[in-house]
Design brief:
eleven-stranded mixed beta sheet, Isopropylmalate Dehydrogenase, 2 domains, alpha/beta
Length: about 350
């Protein structure tokens, strides 16, 4: 690239709050990461959001998008019908080498569709996966898929495990990360038909540090470094965790301000509460990489605040720093083809 500093492209129109939140968050992230920025969207809206924002040390380019994709639009149809939308054009910056990565808090399905259309899949990858880590009792665990593939094939989930290992090793700096398969019981006979087909495939893969099934409680306790599941279940798990965290922090705030003695106690415990809130705040995570595509594509939560966008820029930079796509490409190229699951595998009765 011509620029001496790396550049990250950001979909300025994405998310529930649009440019008023995305733009200052992106600039803050660029300053923290010492990179330059390309903001993609409606120029007048971007310029309005930049007013009063400290742009020191950040070269900001604006790429005009004449269209946007709403959260309620059909992803693939919108990507193809609205060619000049902000998601497409931000990913195009990556595809054509002008940006090292892109970030969007917009329609996640549209981000995935555009990424597949414009940067394509890594050779050998059947389906991409959205991955992010969640706080646990021990530290953090990586979960994938979070919604890219709601009805995966068993072989897709084996690839999810391999891609998750690359992310955990390169970006989270975990050595020989453990992998668990999300199920409704620890025994190999538990789970639906998909889980029961995936289990022996993961167990037979010598390059995957598979320890078996994990339940929801095991995820919260940090029993494994990587949790593999389908996109439907993973998305429900993530949203449930977010809801529990919000409920917990709101309840603590309400209970510790109910009476004067409790308020006094809360003053003493305030540093501990702040530390807990920071460790559980989704904004600190920032964004989830779309693993398996030929470039750095980061998907942020639709309700991301400025801090979340800034941290998502950081995720994009770290993914580029550690050549995440290259690592996945190398791992898949060295991996034998995954044998198909037995189509008539018996399905044992599952229990809660």
């Amino acid at each position: 690239m011509a620029d001496t500093k790396r550049r990250i492209a950001v979909d300025a129109m994405g998310g529930d709050h649009g440019p008023s939140v995305v733009v200052p968050g992106a600039v803050a992230g660029a300053q923290e990461q010492h990179i330059d920025l390309t903001l993609v969207g409606i120029p007048a809206d971007i310029e309005a959001a930049l007013k009063g924002v400290d742009r020191k040390d950040v070269d900001i380019a604006i790429v005009e998008a004449t269209e946007t994709i709403g959260m309620d639009e059909h992803p693939a149809q919108a990507v193809r019908r609205k060619r000049k939308n902000s998601i497409n054009l931000a990913i195009q910056e990556v595809a054509e080498g002008r940006a090292a990565g892109m970030v969007s808090a917009g329609n996640s399905g549209a981000v995935m569709a555009a990424a597949l259309m414009l940067v394509g899949r890594i050779p050998g990858i059947e389906r991409p996966a959205i991955a992010t880590y969640v706080p646990t009792a021990k530290a953090r665990s990586l979960i994938l898929d979070l919604g890219a593939v709601t009805d995966p094939k068993p072989s897709n989930m084996v690839q999810f495990a391999r891609m998750g290992q690359v992310y955990a090793e390169r970006v989270l700096e975990l050595s020989h990360p453990t992998v668990g398969l999300l199920s409704n019981g620890e025994e190999p006979t538990k789970g639906n038909q998909l889980v029961q087909q995936v289990y022996p495939m993961l167990a037979a893969a010598e390059d995957i540090n598979f320890i078996g099934n994990v339940e929801g409680k095991d995820v919260a306790m940090g029993a494994v470094d990587i949790v593999v599941t389908d996109g439907f279940t993973g998305n429900v798990l993530l949203k449930t965790a977010e809801g529990v965290i919000t409920m917990l922090t709101d309840t603590l705030r309400r209970e510790f301000t109910a009476t004067l003695p409790r308020k006094l106690a809360a003053l003493v415990l305030r540093p501990a509460f702040r530390s807990m809130r920071t460790s559980l705040d989704y904004s600190v995570i920032g964004g989830a990489p779309l693993l398996g595509v030929n470039g750095v594509v980061i998907i942020s939560h639709g309700r991301s605040n400025a801090l979340a966008i800034a941290n998502a820029v950081g995720v994009a930079v770290r993914s580029d720093d550690h050549d995440l796509a290259g690592g996945i490409r190398e791992r898949i190229s060295l991996t034998p083809a995954t044998p198909p699951a037995t189509p008539d595998a018996p399905v044992a009765a599952s229990s809660v």
